[in-house]
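Morning run. Coffee first, then this:
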Amino acid sequence: MGKPSAFDEANTTLLPPPGRESDVLPLPIRRLDGQLVSCWEVTPEEVDEIQRTGKVWLSIWGGVTHPPVYVTGLKQEVV
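And here it is:
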């Protein structure tokens, strides 16, 4: 969904894995007390689809279990 977006509270950037630089974007994050926060910018078409379906899809790469995640549109809930 969308693309990574820089934000004032970000204090580091996760880089693409070696060999994936052409299709994985750097991800600005805020890392603090075990929490990683990222911000994503969505296109108008994605906003329309979210409004139409009420759904957002989340994909996590790696590992065999799903880490705890939280998706919100409200910055104050995570930063």
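The CA atoms of residues 29 and 36 lie 6 Å apart. Good start to the day.
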